[in-house]
Amino acid sequence: MNDPRRQQFPDAVDDYFDNAPCGLLLTGTDDRITLANRTFAGWVGHPPQELAGRRFPDLLAAGSRIHYETHFAPLLQMTGSLTGITLDLIGEDGSRIPVFVTANVRTDAGGAPVALRITVQDATERRSYERQLLEARRVADRERERVQLLAATLQRSLVPPSLTPPDGLVAAAHYHTASPDDVGGDFYDLFPLTRHKWGIFLGDVSGKGAGAAAVTSLTRYTLRAAAAYDDDPVTVLHNLDAVLSHEFHGDDPHFCTVLFGVITPTVDGFDVELASGGHR
Q1: What does DSSP assign to residue 166?
Q2: Model pTM score
Q3: Which of 8, 48, 63, 65 has the least CB density, counted as fewest CB within 10 Å?
């Protein structure tokens, strides 16, 4: 059937085939090239007429050729089409050209395959973009590992490596933050004050991360220092409140809730004095 549009533009079809912004190929069912446009020929570095009779897989890099012949070609024969597979062409100078390949099978009137129509699109920029994304992900993963290591190291400095209970008392603790990326604001300790008294505290500061770590560190060391000076639990918390109020005020307030106690062994057990305080 004559198409009037083709009569109006007699050279348009040939021009489109030869100069399309993608590679166009027609091969036999044996993958031997019958027609190749100038775009494709320019990529592989051969005139179009020299490509006639060459097998399309022979223009692929070794890995791509193996994948094409063992996976893609059988799938194309089975389903009649392939969409967007990734392959590497080899140029005349040995350079690799990443491409996306789409193909379908041309059949005769009886439905038997007689040829393959292949479209090849340059994927160099996309491959470069993918490499950049992969590198960015590797950089992000390394940074995340670094942050987690710093957070874990800082967290270990804010909790005691072990507890020191008095004889006759068993004490255990387990600390696990909600996220390995953040430093938690919880703190605790059990430590000797004198030969006959032990201090214990458990608390939580507002927030998380570096800001919370600063408050946690100051709170822990203040509690220990205040208890060494005067171990009355109420006095210890008053001293802590004074230090935090002096250090954090104005537009940068920080709060904590603390339970502080003194354990004193007795003949039949232990006496425990407790005091608590915190924000509402």
Answers
A1: P
A2: 0.51
A3: 8
